[in-house]
């Protein structure tokens, strides 16, 4: 597809449920081959896509997302440029340290989202990812009720987490940062994900058949009004993405 071997795994990309946090520093833009850049630029467009294949964008209706963006996504579906998250191969995780020197890990598998490969390689757009908190699995079941309670995630009142991206900046081929906003407990705060892209399967055309996106970032739980147990539980929460995407079809 390009001079770069897209099927090679990103050996230089560290993946761990509690990878080191992203630190801000100057980034350098690196010229990329046209077709490869088209694939990479698509990560800016992690788009709304319903769990029912015949109704793209359905979960993001009702004021969650600007209707104009949903229209753009639906138009992309008719043009064959829309990809959807494969829930069987995707997860979003988080981990937080607690006394005494232990770690709580949670993982969500009910995820709605996708991406659009833009028709213009210089096109930039918005990123969307919706996570249903009821699907959380925990590394410590005894602490899971506390994490789900009103003191922390409050999943009864806030059953969803929304990530909306604003920009993507490349560190190099297949790696970069996504800058965006995370809405949790009805509160929206900025977050940065360090991400890596892998093309798992090439298609017959210039578009891939399967894409994998991995990333990590961090937030301060106090910013989302989760202030309980300050002595026992760290304020820093690590966030991890591991999603696979396939072409959408009705």
Describe this structure in words.
- This protein has helices spanning 34-41, 67-78, 144-148, and strands at residues 82-85, 91-98, 102-108, 111-116, 127-132, 137-138, 160-172, 175-184, 187-202, 208-220, 236-247.
- With 250 residues, the chain is mostly beta strands.
- The protein has a single domain, classed as Lipocalin (Beta Barrel), CATH 2.40.128.110.
- Strands 1-4-5-7-8-9-10-11 form an eight-stranded antiparallel barrel.
- The longest helix has 12 residues, at 67-78.
- The model is unreliable at 1-53 (pLDDT under 50).
Write the layout of secondary structure elements.
Layout lengths: L33 H8 L25 H12 L3 E4 L5 E8 L3 E7 L2 E6 L10 E6 L4 E2 L5 H5 L11 E13 L2 E10 L2 E16 L5 E13 L15 E12 L3
Antiparallel strand pairs: 1-4, 1-11, 2-3, 2-11, 3-6, 4-5, 5-7, 7-8, 8-9, 9-10, 10-11
């Amino acid at each position: 597809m390009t001079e770069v071997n897209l099927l090679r795994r990103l050996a230089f990309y560290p993946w761990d449920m509690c990878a080191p946090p992203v630190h801000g520093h100057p980034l350098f833009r690196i010229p990329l081959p046209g077709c490869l850049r088209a694939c990479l630029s698509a990560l800016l467009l992690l788009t709304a896509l319903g769990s029912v294949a015949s109704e793209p964008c359905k979960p993001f209706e009702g004021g969650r997302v600007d209707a104009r963006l949903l229209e753009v996504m639906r138009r992309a579906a008719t043009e064959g440029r829309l990809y959807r998250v494969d829930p069987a191969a995707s997860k979003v995780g988080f981990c937080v340290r607690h006394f005494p020197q232990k770690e709580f890990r949670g993982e969500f598998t009910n995820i709605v989202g996708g991406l659009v490969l833009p028709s213009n390689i210089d096109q930039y757009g918005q990123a969307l990812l919706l996570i249903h908190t009821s699907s959380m699995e925990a590394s410590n079941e005894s602490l899971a009720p506390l994490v789900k309670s009103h003191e922390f995630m409050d999943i009864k009142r806030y059953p969803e987490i929304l990530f909306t991206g604003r920009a993507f900046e490349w560190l190099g081929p297949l790696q970069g940062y996504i800058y965006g906003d995370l809405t949790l407990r009805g509160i929206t705060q900025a977050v940065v994900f360090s991400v890596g892209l892998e093309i798992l399967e090439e298609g017959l055309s210039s578009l891939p058949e399967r894409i994998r996106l991995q990333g990590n970032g961090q937030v301060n739980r106090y910013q989302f009004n989760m202030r309980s147990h300050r002595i026992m539980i760290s304020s820093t929460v690590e966030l991890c993405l591991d999603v696979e995407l396939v072409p959408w079809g009705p």
